[in-house]
Amino acid sequence: MFNRLLIANRGEIACRIMRSCRRLGIETVAVYSTADAASRHVAEADYAVAIGESSASDSYLRADRIIAAALSSGAQAIHPGYGFLSEKLELIDACHANAIAFVGPNRRAIETMGSKIESKRMARAAGVLCVPGYDEDDQTPQRLQGEAQRIGFPLLIKASAGGGGKGMRRVDAAADFLSMLALARREALASFGDERVLLEKYIINPRHLEVQLMGDRVGGLVHLFERECSIQRRFQKVIEEAPANHLPAAVADSLYEAALRMGRAMNYDNAGTVEFVLDADQGDRPYFLEVNTRLQVEHAVTEMTTGIDLVEWQLRSACGEPLPLSQEAITRQGWAIECRLNAEEPEHDYRASLGPLLGYAEPARQAGVRVDSGLHAKSEVTPYYDSMLAKVIGFGHTRTQALDRARAGLEQLRIEGVRTNGALLLQILLHPAFDDVLTTRFLEQHFPNGPHAQALVRQQHVLAVSAAWAASQPVTQPVWGTLRGLRLTAPAGHPARIDLSVRDVSAASDNEAVCLLSADGGYELADVPGQRAAVQSGPDGFVVNLTQAGQNTVSVHVRGSAEQRWFSWAQGRSMVWDVEHELEHSLHTGSAESQDSQLSATLPGRISEVMLQVGQRVVAGDLVLTLEAMKLYHSLTAPLTGLVQKIHVAVGDIVSHGQLLVEFEIEAEAVDTAAT
Ligand code: ADP
Ligand code: ADP
Ligand code: MG
Asked: Of 54, 120, 439, 496, which sits 20 to 30 A from 610 (CA to CA)?
């Protein structure tokens, strides 16, 4: 076995590969770009080598720099992970030229399977059924259009060199074909440097099934059963499982058989996957799609159900060792479901979510929950690479148990600050249709606009953030002690009240008025009686425990940051808020008679703005000062209508709670009015 391995990748897969290496006593060398200098895969490696600027084309796609890093660090082998250079001839060629072992299959397999056109030809020659279509050399628009007519619509135009769900166009009508073809070609050339396309009949209710293959360099080849990857968005996998649900044994056998034929045709000698599409309406004929000549993202569900460490097997094969087990000795038990956690907001058309993490914690170790993550507390999500942050895998004796555990893992993986698709994943797992035969149309059918808004969940976040905000006011007499300079304290036993203005930043929604009540050390929203919040502050922000009728419902993690920005996280969902206190007052206060002619600091802080001059006339409620405390800005307003008599502070002054700031002189007519 090798004693030092370089991993030419980043994120969760780099960390995943290192895990196997540690167990096998192999030293690891990470490579990293500028953006990744502080990332987890660098921290976890034994050695790390910088390979260039943040953009992938200047770092992770630079085979020359990766080889140089391997040579300088004394690595004997390179594991390419997935994506990046994993299926590029450039890396395997450079490895061979420098006597470094490449952890992957033979060059010819990568080359042939890198072209969807070539791979379909090989599949047909091996007697494997392919999706009907056109994959010949004549690429003239006239010929392609003629073939499109023959195949019928809808059809897919695929970039022959495409991958990762990119470079595919669905065409629904003949009239659109030529314009779509031109578009697909341009994209293929720009993204993959090869404008060749193939055409495929579009299967209307497709089910994505695939078979894991493993080969060695001494002629061994086995399959490790199937995975179902039908939960997809835009041709990209979102949730995968093993085994496939509702799959007749005879169909499964035909998949294994076809995959092995393909493997033999390629002389396959490492980890690879043969992908198929099944027409859920047309019975049980699997059509060959393509071969991925690398470890796949979803390999974990195969590992959980077979008990085999695929990375270990890859390394053994790459060193020339025979496969550790024969086909007969490979068995499968239980069920595994994997969810891909991406930095994106499905509720807003899947826009990317970027920035530093504010908090991060993985679920405690527990049976049947596996988390493969590339994150740690110091991670920052940058725009340069794939949006996948982590995978949560649930494993159990039955599908239901695997589902429950995947849900538990998603609920407990705490990613604060950056938004993810966690809530959508949870809703998918809970959806009744997730138990039916799955097709790739699942998301468009059941979640066309991302996750369903959950009023209760939102309300829980609002309560938690409001309560944490109130609790963060660092005084014994909290903000509701003073209103516009009035001293207002709720009589003992009566709830004090604070009116906040809260805005859901990521929904770009309007400010919403929130009336928070405080009594007996807890908090409630005035219009949601019975739901109570207890706030605990810790080194890591606040933990707000919510109860409903005395029963614990959920714990929400809340933290404030610069300005009035607040972050909440609970059960896989992270939200961002602006919080301000508008007016504070007690339910039990009085009227004009308690008016004060003085304005005092409602909390300790730094005066950041003074909008007053001596002699100026103010109207009760006018904004007169702003105070900065705990990186939040608080507005102070005039307590009465009158004239400014004396200003005791200036911008930059640090004031303590209760300190006198401004004195006013009440206007004579205002006194008269009040008296009558
Ligand atoms: P990639 O290299 O991008 O993974 P694939 O050929 O594997 O490309 O296709 C990706 C996904 O697109 C499949 O998993 C499937 O959901 C969908 N797809 C591909 N071909 C077809 C087809 N002929 N009909 C319907 N869906 C298809
Ligand atoms: P898997 O079947 O392993 O999930 P995916 O098709 O989802 O494979 O791709 C895995 C990773 O590799 C993703 O990060 C994807 O963006 C990337 N990837 C795969 N093939 C290509 C390619 N030809 N070009 C660019 N990215 C790719
Ligand atoms: Mg594919």
From this structure: 496
Residue nearest to atom 6 of ligand 1 (CA): 289
pLDDT per residue over 457-498, tens digit each? Answer: 899 999 999 999 888 875 544 454 443 333 334 444 456 778
When pLDDT is averaged across residues 493-522 and rounded to a whole number, the result is 78
Tell me the residue range of the domain where 668 lies.
590-675
CATH number at residue 233: 3.30.470.20
Residue 215 resides in a domain: yes
Instruction: Tell whether the model's pLDDT for residue 283 goes beyond 60.
Output: yes
For residue 326, how many other CB atoms are within 10 A of its CB?
10
Among 306, 333, 360, identify where a domain stops: 333
CA 355 – ligand 1 centroid, Å: 32
The three-class DSSP label of residue 354 is: coil
Q: Which atom of ligand 1 is nearest to the CA of 230?
A: 16
| Neighbour tally for 47: CB within 10 Å | 17
- Identified catalytic residue from 294, 407, 484, 573: 294
CB of 202 within 6 A of ligand 1: the answer is yes
Q: Please tell me whether residues 299 and 407 are part of one structural domain.
A: no
Same domain, 513 and 422: no
- The response to whether residue 345 sits with its C-beta less than 6 Å from ligand 2 reads no
CA dihedral 563, 531, 491, 502 (to 10 degrees): 20
Query: How far apart are the CA of 113 and the centre of ligand 2, in A?
Result: 14
